[in-house]
Amino acid sequence: MNFWDSELTLLLSGVFGILVVASVIGGILAYRYSGEKSNSTIDNLNARIRAWWVMCIICVLAVVLGNIGVVILFALISFFALREFITLTPTRRSDHEALFWCFFVFIPIQYLLVGIEWYGLFSIFIPVFVFLFLPTRIALAGDTFHFLERTAKIQWGMLVTVFCLSHVPALLMLNIEGYQGENAKLLLFLIVVTQISDVLQYVFGKLIGKHSIVPKLSPNKTIEGFVGGIMSSVVIGACLYWVTPFSWWVAGLMSLAITIMGFVGGLCMSAIKRDSGIKDFGAIIEGHGGMLDRMDSLCFAAPIFFHLTRYFYT
């Protein structure tokens, strides 16, 4: 895959440039307040910055390895995200064989379909075949206790953490006229816009946020943070049109769809955590919580972005 050009170099230089600036600011703040009581906000900020360095480096290495590297990376992400999700759901011994199929058969098959670019089966494998297989396998175990609840949670976990997330590397299979071999930049566009939106919504919420959108669900998500973060991310996305097959205004509209769906994804995952009485899905990523805490926006944004792009550009 011959995609490494000046555009990709410039995009990655911008991303890592921002990380360098953030690291310097975080270091200055830590040094300035080093003689005082431990500041949890500054500690959390620096932990998040370190985590971003690791995540960005891993992402770049996967892209350098080509399609196979990206597919393997997101297969692993789905594995850990599903593991975190299942940990929060009440499973019984009779569910273990169904879960074995999910982790060690269905995840590999889904990402194999992405790797060989078999769109027809990729798009229906989990929503149709896995969806029907899981209740059948659980029913055969003969355990009817909370059958519908247990089955639905496993199905929903597979749909969100595997099927939806697999649409990120699936961007590499799109055959866009005049854009052949450059789809990795489209993938990075999705990730950059999604994550910048999350960060900016957090920043605007901390700076000027006063009115919660859903106080009982997520009091930290404010109307001011939502509007400021979304608008800023749309402008940034429109300015990044040169790494996509889109015009600047289409890139802005795509960014709007990405950021709104990312917000909805975060809201839905917050509802799950609130219902389970926890703050984070896990602790695998320092400063960010679990894998699913970092991927919640992508879970909802990726399939929408993929299908909008496929419908209008292939």
Count helical runs: 12
Q: Over all CA atoms, what is the radius of gyration?
A: 20 Å
First-residue to last-residue Cα separation: 19 Å
The major sheet is characterized as: none
Low-confidence stretches: none
Determine the mean pLDDT: 87
The helix content is over 70%
Helix/strand class: mainly alpha
Identify the overall geometry: globular
- Total of domains: 1
- Write down the secondary-structure element order: HHHHHHHHHHHH
Please state roughly what percent of the residues sit in beta strands, choosing from under 5%, 5-15%, 15-25%, 25-35%, 35-45% or over 45%. Answer: under 5%
Keywords: Membrane, Nucleotidyltransferase, Transferase, Transmembrane, Transmembrane helix
Enzyme class: transferase
Transmembrane segments: 9-31, 51-77, 98-116, 122-142, 154-174, 186-204, 225-243, 249-272
GO cellular component, one term: plasma membrane
Structure description:
The chain has 314 residues and is an all-alpha fold. The chain has one domain. Helices cover 73% and strands 0% of the residues. It has helices spanning 6-32, 40-64, 67-87, 96-115, 119-122, 125-140, 147-164, 167-170, 183-208, 223-239, 248-276, 291-313. Helix 6 (125-140) packs antiparallel against helix 7. It is globular and about 60 Å long. The mean pLDDT is 87.
